[in-house]
Specification:
single chain, alpha+beta, Alpha-Beta Plaits, 3-stranded mixed beta sheet
Amino acid sequence: MERTELQDVLEKAASERGCRLVALSFDDDNNVFDATVASLDGEALVSLDDCEYVHRAVLAAFDRNIEDYALTVGSDVFDAALADDILKNANV
């Protein structure tokens, strides 16, 4: 997976949700990518649904069985670990 391709998908998906990509980190050794999104106006909150939408756009664009990567998408308000906790507790 090319970094520019991943960034393009992330930016497009974030934009579709009224957000923007503000950070993208790569751990090339382990194919782990962390993306952070924020609202376009900087005032609205980015929801968990927004993060999930961006994550699913990447899943649709890149086959994890071929690319072998891990991706987390968080916001400038909550990080991926907090999002995971929210999801775990919501499914209880």
